[in-house]
Amino acid sequence: MATVAAKREISSAENDELSREPKRPKADDKNGEEGGNESEWENVLSTFTTSSVLSDSAREKIMFVHGKIADHDAVVVLEKTPIREDSLAELFRGSKLRLELRNDIYSSYRLQAPPHLNEIKTTVVCPATEKHVKKYKRQESFLVEETSEDYRSITLPYIQEQSLSLQASWVYNILEKKAEADKIVHDDADPEVGFVLLPDLKWDQKQVDDLYLIAIVRQKDIKSLRDLSSEHLPLLQNVFLRGKEAILQRYNLPASKLRVYLHYQPSYYHLHVHFTKLGYDAPGCGVERAHLLSDVIQNLQTDPQFYKSRTLHFPLRADDGLLRRFKEAGRL
Predict the structure, then answer these.
(1) Is 66 in the active site?
(2) pLDDT single digits (tens) 52-78
(3) How confident is the model over 250-262, as pLDDT tens digits?
(4) What's the whole-model pTM score?
(5) CA-wise closest residue to 269 among 148, 198, 165, 153
């Protein structure tokens, strides 16, 4: 499976973002479909030349490669797809085995599966910017402590200064149904409490074990957790309730099997909520970055200005411009 993606700038994100925010297709790419005919997909990487491996993970079976397609910088993300239960019979019946070791009751084989059961999910970012390359490069991370004053004096000015490069035009393409309209699971058009729920590009949608959906709110003036107050409770409650209902209806997955949360810092500054299957070690779901939506709602019910006054902690990568601002202010 291959996904060719448009250029999208990134914001302050931690090392866990390495595979977390793949780039969305261009709006003119047949409404965001995996469009194009088979020969086009086969030729996408025919001219790709490798410059370096930015990072990889044997455990997650993923690799990030920097190189060029023609004269354009590109980043290619290669990720082995999970083994699906419904394909086991065909896998066992159609595979070849080569013995590597046998000892008593234990045998080790090299299994060669049929090609269609041995796919590599591929995301192509082209043309890739320097920010994309840095995003996927393995780097050290630092935990930052941000007070409400730090947010006003350091973080918010940084976001405002970077506003042009941090805009996520692909988000508006989705909200306006210029892209990925066929992938939408739930669409609430209300301008105040409405949102669009659709699969994240990190999920290949072939099994629910690694289910990952994103709810993008229709309000365009909410950048992050810091902007939330009690006036946003109807919006958050609607996303929480309707999102879970839609997932139950579409994927037969009950609320008790879902992890619903927001990131801080987010990878792009338009409020969105993550829905992942409980038990799936989803990228960025650690306590240093993820805030359960149920907790967010309860905190705002208790204190209407909770997130405008609270000290928050989050990780930043070594090359992040926001981390540099915190260092310059003597806050790291």
Answers:
(1) no
(2) 998 888 777 889 999 999 888 999 999
(3) 999 999 999 999 9
(4) 0.71
(5) 165
As given in the structure block, the two tokens for residue 258 are 């879902």
Catalytic member of 132, 263, 272, 274: 272
